[in-house]
Design brief:
Blueprint lengths: L3 E8 L18 H4 L9 H9 L2 E5 H7 L11 H5 L2 E4 L15 E4 L2 H9 L5 E4 L2 H9 L5 E7 L20 E8 L5 E7 L2
Parallel strand pairs: 1-5, 1-6, 2-3, 2-5, 3-4
Antiparallel strand pairs: 6-8, 7-8
Amino acid sequence: MRTLIATAFISLDGVMEAPGGEPDYRNSGWTMTSVDFDPAAYEMKGTEQDEATALLLGRRSYQAFSPVWPAMTEEFPGYNAMPKYVVSTTLKDKDLVENWGETTILRSTADVARLRASDGGPISIHGSATLVHSLQEHHLIDRYHLLVFPVLLGAGKRLFSGAELGAQKLKLVDSAVYSNGIQKNVFDVLR
């Protein structure tokens, strides 16, 4: 069985929207404006890239990342080389970019569950709020890699589903606090 890891930059109040900048969100780029830069706080991102064997994205995140990440050869060499899976009911093969490696379209959470049950290493989920919510609701996420920024953003897309769910217990397996106030929290989902 593979491990599904949801990784995110989030505000203290759980917002994950537009951390690096997106049009039309009032706090766009908040990860760059809310704290001083401390490279140690981002080391987890390199570790994630080294450990992941595949990338799982929702349609909107795929459409945001696919025109940009392939050209970021120094920042994302691991992600650019690994297989990608996009969960979408509307995307067609002709909509996939040609310069970002092997990409497979999955149509449902059942397809994700089959992927998770297959042989192979960890699968990293970036962005993809709607997908993450659906996977949480179907108890498919195994781990959370969170960089929590000391900022309150109020409105915005949140990492955690607002659906009425039974309690999901988590175990903190790694944590750190950095000079700029960012907290690293790695949680395994207990089953």
